[in-house]
Design brief:
The chain is of the alpha+beta class and 452 residues long. The protein contains 11 helices and 16 strands. It has 2 domains: 7-115, Nucleic acid-binding proteins (OB fold (Dihydrolipoamide Acetyltransferase, E2P)); 132-431, Bira Bifunctional Protein, Domain 2 (BirA Bifunctional Protein, domain 2). Helix 4 (143-165) packs antiparallel against helix 6 (252-282). The chain is elongated and about 105 Å long. Bound molecules: aspartyl-adenosine-5'-monophosphate.
Length: 452
């Protein structure tokens, strides 16, 4: 059993013997004293070593001083330490207010180099994002990066907690599929024995399947794949999708209500646990959103954007990224809110499985959720009437025969239902005001990135 103490736990210990392990961050090698900043996964501590540069002359006829030899060896090995070397150090913990780093230091007794590091570090603070991604394991060593993934852990845990408290069932749907569930254009095809399979773009069909299966409410946090050739800061070819689907919704309004409650629960948990660190490392005072989030029909949103002087390039098109930024700015100015649901999307912009608006069949019972200027989620009530669903599939140019397995879900009693999908890395990117989902994805996958 390893007896090392985590750095974050040193403060609570009395002065006395301790063992710590971690990576060498810096070495200050002075003539009379050496300082090493050692970092483990919990924090950094200063190690100190009174330097022994040469052995005293042995007294005539006497033995060399063994303790002095050991101190000389320790001094020499500290001088040779490369940044990133992994050490185990045993020594004496001493609390001392004058030490800037945490008010304590460890006087080195013995030092073991557990794993050496190449002396040339391949990345520096000013390396390009791409270079940092090449060396992601080194890039991830920094406290800011650790915090991102501790926040991710808390965020996901809070989502699960909310769903468990509200009787949702967790599902794990297959990522190998026989057909597309979203746009065919973004489909990865793989050889599958004698035939072909496709990587799941979304758990869409299978989370819907849980409704006729009688599960009522379900969720999944899992991988999704999109053969999207774009190089934007918000697209990956593989991403973690947060999905929920529930029965007995009257409209997309019920889905939005669950969605906003869920986000409030998750943001509250993140703020409680990490608020101070987020302020310290990112300079951000995290805001927990208030409910209800503002809701604006898409057509109205486009008008607001136009009135602000931004013309979305094609009138029939989706609201584009600049349009999203503009509507977010408007919502922030008008309602002081970071989130906005854009509702009632045109059928031309939505997949066949969205339910049409009861009062205007050119629109759907659907929404996008925009957070700080970027879409993080799409949700909708689904069409559950089989005859209407088949018609809508045909209108979108889909062959109902290819979708037979999905259409069967609707032939044996399916409750009205709805749900949403939300990109995990996008939420974290916007929460922490990062510029790319590469920063908030453990290992990013894009058109030209399959390594490491
Ligand atoms: P949609 O395609 O809008 O909807 O995806 C839902 C959310 O997933 C995230 N996302 C992505 N994140 C990173 N890289 C990508 N290439 C990428 N594509 C999507 C976004 C987006 O808002 N089945 C529906 C959801 C539903 O109706 O339940 C769907 O997948 O944050």
């Amino acid at each position: 059993m390893n007896t090392r103490t985590l750095v974050k736990n040193l403060a609570a210990l009395p002065d006395g013997p301790v063992t710590v392990s971690g990576w060498v961050e810096t070495v200050r090698d002075q003539k009379k004293v050496q300082f090493v900043i050692l970092r483990d996964e919990s924090g950094a501590v200063q190690l100190v070593n009174p330097a022994t540069r040469e052995l005293p002359e042995p007294i005539e006829g006497g033995e060399a001083d063994a303790a002095a030899s050991a101190r000389l060896a320790t001094t020499e090995s500290i001088s040779a330490l490369a940044h990133g070397t992994f050490l185990t150090v045993s020594g004496e913990l001493k609390h001392d207010e004058r030490v800037k780093l945490g008010g304590l230091e460890v006087k080195i007794g013995s030092l073991e180099v557990v794993a050496e590091a190449n002396p040339e570090t391949p990345i520096a603070a000013d390396s390009s994002l791409d270079k940092r991604m090449d060396w992601r394991f080194l890039d991830l060593r920094h406290p800011k990066q650790h915090l991102i993934f501790r926040i991710q852990t808390t965020f996901e845990h809070a989502l699960r907690q909310y769903w468990v408290d509200n009787d949702f069932i967790e599902i794990h749907t297959p990522k190998l599929m026989a057909s597309a569930s979203e746009s065919r254009a973004e489909l990865f095809e793989v050889d599958y024995f004698e035939g072909k399979a496709y990587l799941a773009q979304s758990p869409q069909f299978f989370k819907q399947m849980a409704q006729p299966a009688g599960f009522g409410k379900v969720f999944e946090i899992g991988p999704a794949f999109r053969a999207d050739p774009s190089f934007t800061s918000r697209h990956a070819t593989e991403f973690t999708s947060i999905d929920a689907e529930m029965s007995w919704v009257d409209s997309h309004e019920d889905v939005m209500r669950m969605h906003e409650e869920l986000l409030v629960a998750a943001f509250t948990a993140v703020k409680e646990k990490h608020g101070a660190e987020i302020l310290d490392l990112f300079g951000i005072e995290l805001e927990v959103p208030t409910t209800p989030f503002p809701r604006i029909p898409l057509a109205e949103a486009k008008q607001i954007v136009a009135d602000r002087g931004y013309v979305i390039p094609r009138d029939d098109a989706d609201i584009d990224p600049e349009g999203e930024r503009q509507i977010s700015a408007y919502v922030k100015e008008t309602y002081g809110h970071d989130f906005v649901f854009l509702t009632d999307w045109d059928i031309s912009l939505r997949p066949f499985y969205h339910m049409r608006h009861p009062e205007d069949s050119a629109l759907t019972n659907s929404y996008d959720l925009i957070y700080n200027g970027v879409e993080i989620s799409t949700g909708a009530q689904r069409e559950h009437r089989i005859d209407v669903l088949v018609e809508q599939a045909k209108e979108k140019g889909l062959d109902p025969e290819e979708l037979e397995f999905y259409l069967d879900f609707f032939r044996y009693g399916v409750p009205p239902h709805g749900g949403f999908g939300m990109g995990l890395a996008r939420v974290l990117m916007l929460m922490l005001e990062e510029h790319s989902i590469r920063e908030t994805t453990y290992l990013f996958r894009g058109p030209t990135r399959l390594l490491p």
